[in-house]
Each structure stands twice: as C-alpha cells, then as structure tokens.
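The instructor's notes for this session suggest beginning with a concrete chain rather than abstract definitions. Hand out the sequence below and ask the class to guess, before any prediction is shown, which regions might be ordered.
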Amino acid sequence: RRDKLLASRVGAWPEAIRDVLSHLEVDSTLHRALCQLAESGPVPLRPVWATYARNAHVLDVPAALAQVRAELADPASDHVIEAFEAAHDRGTRVAVEVLESLAEQVTRDLALVEEVITGQAEIRAEAVFAVILPFAMLAFLVASNDAFARFYSRPIGFIVIAVGVAMAAGGWKAINALGRAQAALGQDRAV
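After discussion, reveal the predicted structure:
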C-alpha cells in the first residue's frame, strides 16, 4: 500500500510542477501557486498541499515546505521541494526557469523508471520461458518417442526429472533475486 502511494505521488510530480508553472505564468506568487495544488493539483498530492496551506498561515513558507518534505519523505519529492525552496528564495522569474527544468528532469526520471520496469517484465517473461521450455520439450519427446517414454518411466528417469525440477527451481529463485537487485539499482538511479 505504501509503495502504491509513493509511486502515485512520484508519478504526479510532473503534473504538479506544470500546475505551479501555470499559476506563476499568470502573475501568482510561488506560495499561492503551492496552495492551489491542494485544489487543482494532482489528486495524490492534494492532501499534502492542503496541509502546507494550513502550515504556511502559521509558519513561514520554508518551514511549511520542510513539513511537506517530512510528510512525503522520498528522494524524488525531496528534490522537488528543494527546488521549490530555492525558487521561493530567488523570486518568480528564477522560479519559472528552475521549475521548467525540473519538470523536464522529473519527466525523464519517470520515463527511466518505466523503462526499467518494462525491461524487467521482458526479462521475467524470458525467465518463465526458460524454466518451462525444457519440461515442454521433455513432454513432447516422451509423447513422441518410445525410447524416451521407456527411459523416463523407470526410476532413473524419475531421478533425472527430479534433478531437473530442483535445478529449475534453484534457477527460478536466482532469477528472481537478480531481478529484485536490478530493480533496486534501477530505482535508485532514477531517483
């Protein structure tokens, strides 16, 4: 559940940044643009920005942004919040330049993550094929050739099949472990 929430928030950042940019382009301040995210921003981020709006009335903007960073607590969001903090310090003109660059970068990062996930799906499909193919071929050979059928109906044939199943299971576990390690590396690079 937390992973889905995190993924939805990270995926919402390009839209949120573009929403802030659209408000800045009509002469809004960064603070007002961030408050508007609670109403017009991407749904996964609205509650966070509603909290920001409440906190910003009591605290100053940097402190309210620090609260947002603490609530989101993920590297992609930290990067965006840092950009908002820098933009707040330097004014609207610089904010627009920084946020346009950030929107492009976050979009590229999300595309990279999607590419890694797609690559893993392909690898997983290939792994399934690699595990199933030998047994499919064995079934074909046993069904079409009497010599194979006689061999695999004897105890030695059952031992060969058992060893093959054990090797396939070990290979499957190794493939899954490597896939998880590759996914972790890909996500770290993308963030």
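Then share the key points. The chain is about 90% helix and 0% strand. The radius of gyration is 27 Å.
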